[in-house]
Specification:
The complex is a heterodimer of chains A (622) and B (258).
Chain A: H1 2-30, E1 54-62, E2 67-76, E3 79-84, E4 95-97, E5 101-105, E6 107-112, H2 118-124, E7 127-132, H3 137-149, E8 157-160, H4 188-198, E9 203-206, H5 222-234, E10 239-242, H6 246-254, E11 259-261, H7 272-280, E12 283-285, H8 288-294, H9 299-305, H10 316-323, H11 335-348, H12 368-379, H13 384-390, H14 393-398, E13 415-419, E14 432-437, E15 440-441, E16 454-455, E17 461-463, E18 476-481, E19 490-497, E20 505-512, E21 522-527, E22 536-537, E23 543-550, E24 554-561, E25 569-574, E26 580-585, E27 598-605, E28 612-621
Parallel strand pairs in A: 1-4, 1-5, 6-7, 7-8, 9-10, 10-11, 11-12, 16-22
Antiparallel strand pairs in A: 1-2, 2-3, 5-13, 13-14, 14-15, 17-28, 18-21, 19-20, 20-28, 21-27, 23-26, 23-28, 24-25, 24-27
Helix pairs in contact in A: 4-5, 6-7, 9-12, 12-13
Chain B: H1 6-24, H2 27-47, H3 55-89, H4 91-96, H5 104-131, H6 138-150, H7 152-165, H8 170-185, H9 197-203, H10 207-218, H11 227-257
Classes of the chains: A alpha/beta (622), B mainly alpha (258).
């Protein structure tokens, strides 16, 4: 009996201990931490000193303004502790050999538009901070909140104007994001206050009727622009004014603008705006990269995308963006020559020049293009050291980023190490050896080839609509309209009696296209992947075929594919009053479309069809 | 109970020595116990050591997990199978009639488990350094070895229980049926993070998992959470195993003398 009690007590105690231990471990696992398969540290030896503590020795150091030919940089807990030739490194601190390499402050791109993965991509190319000149205010607010919580090591930091100030229908309203606008000087203060409330770090103002691009867009009056600059200063914010003509630039400077976005290409280097900028103490962000693209001068951008030291990191989206062109580049006008000469004149007048790219406009890409901008600035007359300062210490000082832009004690360890000597040959910035953000080494992953769609097992039939809108494969049909881009078009679909070739039923789509969006659309969309917009591989089919009848209007099939980015390719068809089969070769969508990465097919009415009605039936790939 | 005398210590020492001598002369135990973890480690950690940038990481990680695998095997088989066989041979009965303390053979078998565990760890360490390019500070080596060898104790207790519960023929089969699935599910063969979620959750309920996590924590590759949770679980497992062994022992006594 005694033995049994002993055994029972021991067993119960054992089970109790196990329960406590296991549940404690389960609770610890529930805490959200990322787990690497092989553990977090390569060797536990590195556990003693923090990984953000290290020293770079024997490197050439460009500290933001000047060059130290051979120096040590000591980083402690992500902050630069000491810089100089005679720094002693404590024994336990890991050492990075910098011999033959040049250490630069992490680069700052002073003119971008950041959304989606822009900041992640920028970091891959050594840009640790982006100054954004207009993006979705919510995106900017999210990034600001994240940066406030602590060091972000997965992407570049963002400093942003958020929503820009422009006239209704003016430049900045054409991107599909609905934004507030203003028309009168007395609205300026309220407008600026709303931006400050949203968190804008500075105020960006559009003062450009786009005449220099052969367009005519509404723009702010001189009085409103002037009032906006004053309102920004009232709240202690910088006012950066976008201009494209010498006249607009002079007027912005006269209004007290702190800086100009874009160099102008329509005035000679001797223009009085140089003297005006100097006298007002204004800075200029020339964005020669995008000027080159608008003038059709793509030589540097093309060379960049195939540069052997960058190529493996250039993803397909970046290559597309670099290869893209503005709709009507102003070729052969000498614009680029004048722009370059004016930058040279501004430099001679000691006007602060900031390196900015205007990525991701056609011909540019985040991060990557800053290396082009540096080269173009040197081509315009800056020394390599001045160009590097334009991408580090000068933008940091201009935008009040007191913790970065220089390699000096107390600065955050945002560092870029490159092979060779960019202080003499600027293109060496492309030969990136290492990047640190806040002392954390950035892991640069080579870009992956475009994800092919998952192969779809199907005989090609999408829908015959005999019972409902069921599909043979994929996510299925869904109505899509321009309301997601601020439009007001409508559409509805239902299965109705009577189909093509005597079949029982078909799909009827009816709706209306209403003004309100730059690119109006409305209609049913078929998603061939398991989820909306995940690509499916239908490359063994050559054509899309369907039967249709309707009101005689012209309709479009818009194809979405990974290779196309966000812009679909289209083919048109007419919905006659009698049933008729439409056969579209997939290659007819252009862009090398072969169905291998198809994300969606949208059957849409076109602009101008106030009301529309059509039936479609027997949709299949063949 | 009388206090231990010098003569007792001599008996304990003799028991350890002879027990050790016995298993050394039993290649059926000594070879697989040391050979399997070593071969597995060479195969999975060194030869198939993943991508080059993971190389030393993989070899370090698997040093902990295959070390745990080896120690558990040495303890379960060393205790379980030999006890089951000796029980059947009547050897234990004979021992009880000798003027020696009852627990002496338990101490002897525990010593064997510890010595073999140490041998397995030593072999793996040599392989890891030579072929896996594992580099760690001396203190880390020492702590890893200590944790691994100490892990022999809870699993020896479990082996004791199994040795009393199983017959001589069924013991190797039963122990393999427990040992091998437990080793796999606890992430001793492939890293725990590579297993599907339900297996990961199951793993947390297995003692081998907690043993491996203690060892992995030493090399900085644990899954997180405090070390005491693992120690507590293993202590509980030891107590439970001892209770099980006592119960089985009583049953055995009843069958023999009852």
């Amino acid at each position: 009996m005694k033995a049994r009690i002993l055994e029972g007590t021991l067993a119960a105690a054992g089970i109790a201990l196990m329960t406590v231990g296991i549940s404690a471990h389960f609770r610890a696992l529930a805490a959200p931490t990322s787990r690497a398969t092989w553990g977090s540290e390569a060797t536990p030896a590195a556990a003693a000193p923090r990984p953000t503590t290290f020293a770079i020795v024997d490197a050439r150091v460009f500290d933001g303004t000047a060059v130290l030919e051979r120096a040590t940089v000591l980083v402690e807990s992500g902050v630069i502790k000491a810089v100089g030739p005679g720094i002693s490194v404590p024994k336990e601190v890991p050492v990075v050999n910098g011999y033959g390499k040049t250490l630069l402050p992490g680069l700052i791109d002073a003119h971008t538009h950041a959304f989606q993965d822009a900041l992640e991509r920028a970091l891959v190319f050594g840009v640790t901070t982006e100054v954004d000149m207009f993006t979705d205010a919510r995106f900017a607010a999210d990034r600001r909140a994240e940066q406030k919580r602590g060091l972000v090591t997965s992407r570049a930091d963002l400093v942003s104007a958020g929503t820009l100030a422009t006239a209704p229908g003016g430049h900045g309203t054409e991107y599909g994001i609905p934004i507030p606008t203003l028309t009168r000087p007395d609205e300026a203060q309220a407008f600026v206050d709303a931006r400050v409330a949203e968190g804008s770090d500075f105020i960006k103002i559009i003062y450009d009727d786009a005449a220099s691009y052969g367009l005519k867009l509404p723009t702010l009056t001189r009085e409103t622009m002037t009032a906006l600059v004053a309102a920004a200063h009232q709240r202690g914010k910088l006012a950066v004014v976008h201009v494209s003509t010498g006249r607009a630039a002079r007027e912005a400077l006269a209004a007290g603008a702190d800086g100009l976005a874009h160099i102008v290409a329509d005035v000679p280097a001797g223009d009085e705006l140089v003297a005006l900028a100097r006298q007002r103490g204004a800075f200029v962000i020339p964005t020669l990269t995008v000027i080159a693209s608008t003038t059709g001068d793509t030589s540097v951008a093309r060379a960049l995308s195939v540069d052997p030291s960058l190529a493996i990191y250039v993803g397909s989206s970046e290559r597309r963006s670099l290869d893209a062109e503005f709709p009507a580049p102003l070729k052969g006008t000498g614009g680029m020559l004048r722009a370059r000469a004016l930058v040279g004149a501004l430099k001679a007048a000691a006007v602060p020049i900031l390196a900015g790219t205007d990525a991701p406009n056609p011909g540019t890409a985040h991060g990557l293009s800053l290396h082009e901008e540096l080269e173009l600035l040197v081509g315009a007359g800056l020394s390599p050291i001045e160009a590097l300062a334009a991408a580090t210490s000068i933008p940091a000082r201009t935008f009040g980023l007191s913790d970065r832009g220089r390699i000096a004690p107390g600065m955050r360890a945002d560092l870029l190490m490159v092979d060779g000597d960019p202080t003499r040959a600027i293109a060496a910035t492309r030969r990136i050896a290492a990047i640190w953000k806040g002392g954390v080494a950035v892991e640069r992953k080579p870009a992956l080839p475009e994800p092919a769609g998952a192969r779809v097992n199907t005989n090609g039939l999408v829908s015959d609509f005999e019972t409902d809108t069921a599909t043979g494969f994929g996510f299925g049909w869904q109505i899509s309209t321009d309301s997601m881009m601020g439009g007001a078009s409508e559409a509805a679909m239902r299965v109705v009696q009577g189909g093509a070739q005597g079949s029982r039923r078909s799909l009827e789509v009816a709706g209306s296209i209403k003004p309100g969006s730059m690119y109006p659309w409305a209609g049913p969309m078929f998603f061939p992947g398991q989820q909306p917009m995940t690509p499916a591989n239908l490359s063994r089919f050559a054509t899309l075929a369907f039967w249709t009848k309707g009101d005689g209007g012209t309709y479009r099939v818009l194809a979405f594919a990974s290779r196309l980015g966000r812009i679909p390719a289209e083919q048109r068809f007419v919905a006659d009053p009698e049933w008729r089969e439409v056969v579209m070769p997939l290659s007819g969508f252009g862009n090398g479309m072969d169905g291998s990465d198809l994300q969606g097919l949208l059957f849409s009415a076109s602009a101008g069809q106030a009301t529309f009605r059509l039936q479609i039936d027997d949709v299949r790939f063949r | 109970m009388r206090p231990l005398s010098v003569r007792d210590f001599r008996i304990y020492g003799l028991e350890c020595r002879t027990e050790l001598l016995k298993v050394m002369r039993l290649p059926a135990y000594a070879l697989p116990t040391i050979g399997f973890p070593a071969v597995f480690y060479l195969l999975f950690a060194v030869a198939l050591g993943g991508r080059p940038q993971d190389g030393a990481k993989v070899a370090t990680y698997m040093l902990a997990t295959y070390g745990a695998f080896g120690v558990i095997g040495a303890s379960l088989f060393g205790f379980g199978v030999s006890l089951a066989v000796e029980r059947a041979q009547g050897w234990l009965l004979l021992k009880r009639s000798m003027p020696a303390p009852t627990g002496a053979w338990i101490v002897g078998k525990t010593a064997v488990s510890l010595v073999f565990s140490a041998a397995i760890v030593a072999v793996l360490v040599v392989l890891g350094v030579l072929f896996g390019h594992v580099r760690m500070p001396l203190g880390t080596w020492a702590r890893l070895s200590a944790v691994l060898v100490a892990g022999a104790l809870p699993f020896s207790a479990f082996g004791l229980a199994l040795g009393y519960l199983c017959g001589p023929n069924s013991a190797p089969a039963v122990i393999n049926l427990i040992y091998l699935p437990m080793a796999f599910l606890s992430g001793l063969w492939v890293p725990i993070e590579m297993l599907p979620t339900f297996m990961k959750n199951l793993a947390v309920c297995l003692p081998a998992y907690h043993f491996a996590q203690l060892a992995l924590q030493v090399v900085g590759a644990g899954r997180g959470g405090p070390a005491w949770s693992h120690v507590l679980t293993l202590a509980g497992f030891t107590l439970f195993s001892v209770a099980l062994a006592l119960g089985a022992f009583r049953r055995d006594e009843g069958a023999t003398f009852g």
